[in-house]
Amino acid sequence: MKTMQANVVTPDGSVFEGQVEMVTVKTTEGSLGIMANHLPLVAPLTVSAVRLKMDSKIQLVAVSGGFIEVRPDEVSVLAESAELPSDIDIARARAAKERAERRLERAKQENLDFKRAEMALKRAINRLEVAGG
């Protein structure tokens, strides 16, 4: 199967670089699968897992928003933050999820910043799902 270069980059640097067969992401408009020679496009990403398929293996990367830029021979994910499963501290992610759930409940009751609390919970859940925790 034909491959293409894939890069996942954050403001702190590169998280993944390599040749892949397919990249699957969740955009604000829905899921998108990209293979070599895809038409160029740019799309905003949601908090989700980026799936990078290489040699019938899937590498997951937890991203918390950003953009995907597609060219026929290269896909770049420009993420606000991104983590490989091996870099995720599961205990810390669970603690963040619990804090976010409490904050979300408090936001509902006290008319606080509900959207911010909701996004914190989505990021924590995404990290746990990618890490297998």
UniProtKB/TrEMBL annotation:
Localization, UniProt: Cell membrane; Endomembrane system
Taking the record's annotation, the residue ranges forming a coiled coil are: 90-117
Q: Which UniProt keywords apply?
A: ATP synthesis, Cell membrane, CF(1), Coiled coil, Hydrogen ion transport, Ion transport, Membrane, Transport
Q: Where is the ATP synthase epsilon subunit C-terminal domain?
A: 87-132
Q: Where is the ATP synthase F1 complex delta/epsilon subunit N-terminal domain?
A: 4-82
- Tell me the membrane topology, using the record's own terms: Peripheral membrane protein
Q: Does the keyword Membrane apply?
A: yes
Q: Which InterPro entries match?
A: ATP_synth_F1_dsu/esu (IPR001469), ATP_synth_F1_dsu/esu_N (IPR020546), ATP_synth_F1_esu_C (IPR020547)
Subunit note = F-type ATPases have 2 components, CF(1) - the catalytic core - and CF(0) - the membrane proton channel. CF(1) has five subunits: alpha(3), beta(3), gamma(1), delta(1), epsilon(1). CF(0) has three main subunits: a, b and c.
Q: What does the UniProt function comment say about this protein?
A: Produces ATP from ADP in the presence of a proton gradient across the membrane.
Please state which protein family the record places this protein in. Answer: Belongs to the ATPase epsilon chain family.
What's this protein's name? ATP synthase epsilon chain
Where does this protein come from, organism-wise? Evansella tamaricis
